[in-house]
Amino acid sequence: MSAEWQGLLDPNERIIWQGAPAPRPKIEWENPFHPLFFQFFTGFSVFWMVIALLGGGLIWTFGLLFVAVGVYNLILIHFWKRFMRQNTFCTLTNKRAFIATQLSCGGRMLDSDPLGPDTKISCIEDAQPSIHLATRTSNTTNGTTTIPIGFDDIADGRDVYGLIRHVQDGTA
């Protein structure tokens, strides 16, 4: 066991797989309505800023916030999520799944989810499969949103899915 895992793993826990998401660019919109809404949102914000600018004064600068939100949700979200994938590392042990993220500001995040016979797992087939091991709920202004947690966009997804099944039945 390497020094970076000292104190994180249980005495009888061992690493059986490590990997990282593919850093490929991809469309990150959650639904087809998302880009349509933010095109209108951004366009209206620019229109409002132009009208406010013609009126004189600095009130037009208030629209910069709305333009920034629109541009982020139309374009920058794809780059941000790719950046996060490039800095995420996945580890599977004979007991848990770890997801680690190294942030550019020097911070680190480490999540672990136990794997047992009752853990519901799903494999989403794609060019780079994703395996979801858990969900987290997030409260929003419109209610709650369920966020899948797991190994996203990994090259050897089917093999890892098989390893997780072995962990679940105690043969790993």
Strand-helix topology:
Blueprint: E1 15-19, H1 33-54, H2 63-86, E2 88-93, E3 96-102, E4 108-114, E5 122-124, E6 130-140, E7 143-151, H3 157-169
Antiparallel strand pairs: 1-2, 2-3, 3-4, 5-6, 6-7
Helix pairs in contact: 1-2
Structural class: alpha+beta
Strand tally is: 7
Task: Label the overall shape.
Answer: elongated
As residue ranges, the low-confidence spans are none
For the record, give the distance between the C-alpha atoms at the N and C termini, rounded to a whole number: 17 Å
Whole-number mean pLDDT: 87
- Can you list the strand order of the major beta sheet? 1-2-3-4
Characterize the largest beta sheet: strand count, sense, and whether it forms a barrel: 4 strands, antiparallel
H/E topology pattern: EHHEEEEEEH
Gyration radius, rounded: 21 Å
Percent of sequence in beta strands: 25-35%
Tally of alpha and pi helices: 3
Portion of residues in helices? 25-40%
